[in-house]
Amino acid sequence: MGQFQLRCVSDGSLQPEYALSCPHDQSLLRAQYRARQIQPRDLPGIWRFLDWLPVERVFPGFEAGPVTYKSRGLARELGLENLFIGFNGYWPERGARLPTCSFKDLEAAPTIERLKERGERSTLVLASAGNTARAFVHAATLAGWPLLLFVPEKALDRMWTVLSNGAEQVTLVAVRGDYYDAIVMAEKACSYPGFVPEGGARNIARRDGMGTVMLDAAFFLGRIPEHYFQAVGSGTGGISAWEAALRLRGDGRFGDNLPRLHLAQNIPNAPIFYQWKGLPAEPISEDMFDDVLFNRRPPYAMPGGVRDALQETGGDVYGITDGEAQQAKRLLEESEEIDILNAPAVAVAALCQAVQEGRVRPKDTILLNITGGGLARMREDFELQALQPLAAVKSWEEAAELLEGKR
């Protein structure tokens, strides 16, 4: 046995090291690490948790990681005694230095490192509504790894880098459609020789990278929190928190509870919310508070997916309006004195709702995942370089012609 074994969630069968799903039922796969108890390494950022990451080495040039602190301002506003914030953005005064202001950096670095260790230098293909793409651009550029990105045209303003070499290994294609259209094009591109999918929720490097938010909080608290709040699009972050908590419970030093997952979506584009509540989905809106939270095909019902995570933790899903999110964004920014991205404001709104409805008590231990922030703070320290698309396409035929020209 190496550092880990890859097992099917539903039947426990052992699967190849780089598999993405169980051949029996398409279940998610989960890494079973050799280290039952995690021993933090004397390494920077995310690499402290190398025992529970599916890589053998540290990714050169990436030294950031999650940061946990005890809230004063927001906690006071909400009457909470044990509110802890996982700040996953750029806030150097707190020690937070994620290079693209988003916790998607925690996914990208181990994913690229895992590809490097695999030894197969194929172009990585990714679809994103902005934050994930930006994180993978940074990691791939550091590694000199070829990357093909499909990003909705309206999300191009989120495509920037602080790196001076201009992301030379990256091919950015703007899609005249939404995130789903970008996903479809990325899937079709992977049928070409020399292109590989990054795997999305099925990629253990992405999930376990995000899971370090829960690990960092557990070490900061000395225990597993009772509640976990996060805004989600696909829900993969919720799965990651659940899986990390399962490992922490198995460790034996952090308590035997699992945190109750409080996942939040921006209605009406909220498929997980409607499925969980058993409600008919409302018509999709072209405008929403943050479209990075909209994924039409979340990993909800598959074994090991969002539904299982919610059921096992006694969790719930919140439907948050644009107005509620905007108000919550102001509340956190004023009380904690840091700017945040729109997506985590949806999680703050869910926390406010949970307090008002008595779903959390004043003395409960709560972890609020601020999944992105500090963009205004970053602009004080860096000049952001806008990334330009190779072309804008509205159909797969146009994209295929573009790829043929790049080969």
Can you walk me through this structure?
The chain is α/β, with parallel strands linked by helices and 407 residues long. The chain has two domains: 206 residues, Rossmann fold; 125 residues, 3-Layer(aba) Sandwich (Rossmann fold), CATH 3.40.50.1100. Helix content is 34%, strand content 19%. The strands form five sheets. The chain has a six-stranded mixed beta sheet, with helices on both faces. A five-stranded parallel beta sheet has the order 12-8-9-11-18, sandwiched between helices. The chain has a three-stranded antiparallel beta sheet with strand order 2-1-3, with no helix packed on it. Strand 8, helix 3 and strand 9 form a beta-alpha-beta unit. Helix 2 crosses helix 3, helix 2 runs antiparallel to helix 5 and helix 6 packs across helix 7. The longest helix is centred in the middle third of the chain and has 16 residues. It is globular and about 60 Å long. The two termini are 39 Å apart.
CATH class of the largest domain reads Alpha Beta
Distance between the termini: 39 Å
Number of helices in the DSSP assignment: 13
Strand content: 15-25%
The helix content, as a percent range, equals 25-40%
Shape: globular
**Most strands sheet:** 6 strands, mixed
Q: What integer is the average pLDDT?
A: 94
Radius of gyration: 20 Å
Q: Characterize the quaternary organization of these chains.
A: single chain
Unreliable segments of 5+ consecutive residues:
none
Q: How many domains?
A: 2
The SS-based structural class is alpha/beta
Number of strands: 18
Write the layout of secondary structure elements.
Blueprint: E1 4-8, E2 14-15, E3 29-33, E4 67-70, H1 73-78, E5 82-87, E6 90-91, E7 96-97, H2 105-118, E8 123-127, H3 131-143, E9 147-152, E10 160-161, E11 170-175, H4 179-189, E12 195-197, H5 204-210, H6 212-221, E13 227-231, H7 236-251, E14 260-266, H8 271-277, H9 306-313, E15 316-320, H10 322-336, H11 342-356, E16 365-370, H12 375-381, E17 385-386, E18 391-393, H13 396-406
Parallel strand pairs: 5-16, 8-9, 8-12, 9-11, 11-18, 13-14, 13-16, 14-15
Antiparallel strand pairs: 1-2, 1-3, 4-5, 6-7, 10-17
Helix pairs in contact: 2-3, 2-5, 4-13, 5-7, 6-7, 7-9, 10-11
